[in-house]
Write a structure and sequence with these properties.
Radius of gyration: 17 Å
Strand content: 5-15%
Mean pLDDT: 95
CATH class: Alpha Beta
CATH superfamily: P-loop containing nucleotide triphosphate hydrolases
Order of helices and strands: EHEHHHHEHEHHEH
Number of helices: 9
Number of domains: 1
Shape: globular
Bound molecules: cytidine-5'-monophosphate
Distance between the termini: 31 Å
Structural class: alpha/beta
CATH topology: Rossmann fold
Strand order of the largest sheet: 2-3-1-4-5
Low-confidence stretches: none
């Protein structure tokens, strides 16, 4: 059983790759003093371990690494590459591995460090698997070319050789597997609010979500 802090604000976000969810979630977390966890980074970290230590890679090894996982492990630049992203999308289809990762996510969602007023997690199965009782649920998306352009810009900064066409192809592939896989597929739940960021800049997205959150917090007397 995990420890649960009472009276904390919990925000759950699901989104396809490169929809801008991470940027928005970070801004929202900062504003409301919430602990932010990009759950995709955990799968990326495990994918990175698989690429770096192919011979050692087994459940025992993953468990030992995950047990002592630090936030700084998730901020490694090498986790951002397309290779790691694609591998993450493959390994994340493994049920046993997801179970190992599930517990860490629950812990951060329901028992964030004391200095935070709550938690904000983004990923693929957060709204219905990790924090089904979240105070706010969002499904953040954007059209495929906008997402590919955004990801291309990010990846170009770390890999000069990558082309837009390659990025588009890999995002399409990732969408296909994340949406259609049997275990924890990406989906918009009925109780999630749809935010389409195609024609919105970062500030506009932030303000749109802030307005939704503030309205409910004011009605409930929490603001
Ligand atoms: O969000 P990001 O693109 O970094 O995630 C990498 C991959 O990790 C995704 O394509 C997805 O397959 C997997 N993932 C997942 N469940 C989550 C977050 C990410 O399966 N909650």
């Amino acid at each position: 059983m995990i420890k649960k802090r009472s009276n904390i604000l919990k925000i759950a976000i699901d989104s396809p790759a490169a929809a801008g969810a991470g940027t928005i979630a970070k801004a929202i977390s900062k504003h409301y003093k919430l602990f932010y966890l990009d759950t995709g980074k955990i799968y990326r970290y495990i994918a990175y371990l698989k690429i770096k230590f192919p011979r050692k890679f087994n459940y025992k090894f993953i468990k030992s690494k995950i047990k002592f996982l630090k936030m700084k492990d998730l901020s490694k630049k090498s986790l951002l590459s397309d290779k790691v992203g694609n591998e993450a999308s493959i390994i994340s289809q493994n049920k046993k591995l997801r179970k190992i990762v599930h517990l860490i996510q629950l812990n951060y969602a329901y028992n964030p460090p004391k200095k935070y007023k709550g938690s904000c997690l983004d990923g693929r199965d957060i709204t219905y698997n990790i924090i089904p009782d979240a105070d706010f649920k969002f499904y953040i998306t954007a059209n495929i070319t906008t997402r590919a352009k955004r990801r291309f810009k990010e990846l170009k900064a770390i890999n000069k050789k990558i082309t837009y066409k390659e990025v588009l192809k890999s995002i399409k592939k990732r969408d296909k597997s994340d949406l259609n896989r049997k275990i924890a597929p990406l989906k918009k739940t009925i109780d999630s609010l749809l935010i389409n960021t195609t024609n919105l800049n970062k500030r506009a997205c932030f303000l749109k979500i802030k307005k939704i959150i503030d309205r409910k917090l004011i009605v409930n007397g929490n603001l």
